[in-house]
Amino acid sequence: MFSAMKLSEFDGLLIFIGVFFMRFYQTGLTVLAALVLSACASNNEQASVRLDVMQGPTFIKGGDATGAQDITVKSPYFAFAISADTGALVDLAIVNNGQYGPDLVRSLDFIPAEGQQLTSTKIDVLEQTGKRVVIELERQLNGQTVKSRYEVNRDNAGIRLSTTQADSGQQFSGYRLERNQGPVTLPSYNDMPNMVQAHWTAASLQNELGILYESDDLRKNRQGGEVSAWLSAGSLDVLSADKPLYGGQGQAKLALLELTPVTSGFEAKLKDLRQRWSRGEKVYLGGSSGKLYAYTPKGRLSADYASAAGKGHSFLSFGPQVYPVTTNFGGTAKPFTESQVEFRSDVGLSNAEVWLDGKQVAGWKINGAKWFRTGVPVPPNHTWMQWVVEDRNGKRAYSNPIWIE
Fold this sequence. Notes:
Elements: H1 7-27, H2 29-41, E1 52-55, E2 71-74, E3 78-82, E4 89-96, E5 99-100, E6 105-110, E7 119-128, E8 132-141, E9 144-153, E10 158-165, E11 171-172, E12 175-179, E13 200-204, E14 211-212, E15 228-233, E16 240-241, E17 254-259, H3 266-278, E18 284-285, E19 291-295, H4 302-310, E20 314-317, E21 321-324, E22 332-333, E23 338-344, E24 349-356, E25 359-365, E26 371-377, E27 384-391, E28 396-399, E29 402-404
Parallel strand pairs: 22-29
Antiparallel strand pairs: 1-2, 2-3, 3-4, 4-5, 6-12, 7-8, 8-9, 9-10, 10-11, 10-15, 13-16, 13-19, 14-18, 15-17, 19-20, 20-28, 21-23, 23-26, 24-25, 24-27, 27-28, 27-29
């Protein structure tokens, strides 16, 4: 390089280098600190604005996906890694302040039954665009081929999970989430001595979230049937809210939710739910139609909404509203206390009902009032109670159950 230069050019290069180092010496620690800070910042993975798929050891801090064939997916909200050896999702990091945080997950996988082992045979990226990614795993279960899918859309802060038998197409239930972090202490929102209407947020959910059941082990309530899962990283898929659900603030929450096929109609779904409530199953009305109002007293973060909806602190409305005044929906009431509620409707209220373990036990006629408050004693030796209200247009609202201690 230097042999091709004229002497004057070489002198000029030396002078330039000398001036650079002299200025560096004069600025001292300021320049040095800037270089160190820049180097440190480069170690933090910036959140992607699209969906990206990478093969090899994951970048997720503290991650377990270290194999050459392991797959990492980056989204604007989170990143996750799949082990090519086991087929399990072994790492997940949520975006905070524009960067991916540490690994929160030890394992997320389809667990058919205790003692049964899945043998991974193949992992494929079936679809990969900036807006959608589908990854499919082929594994062996008792000599049968099963296929598990991870489906991600760019605009959704979650992963759709499903496992089917290759030959018959039968869909299996039974996902288990094992977290890295310890139990998170969250407010129960059970008692509500001062109900404030502004503490509730309404949103419309996707069809498959018509029934909500949150658990780290979805095998507990469903041993069979066509049930897939949704891993929510701070939201319940696409929300169409009356009020903005401010994203990118606070600590997003992981929630493993049951996804069930759409039933033939709302009444059939409600009948099925009431039967499951009588068995003590903590499943709740979602928002496949109508609007789901969830209790969000800490704000309107999508994480707060998702947490409240998954725990049944909500009601489903096709018109009027029903707000708890004492024990929250999804909460537990003691026998011989009183369950109080407040009904509201812009067009006027018509009637209200109380259901107890699958049977209507009380009712009121309301002659067009736009606001009505009432209550009933909580009876002993029962499992659940539910409030239903109807407006003058025949539209109804349904509370999620109040469990009886």
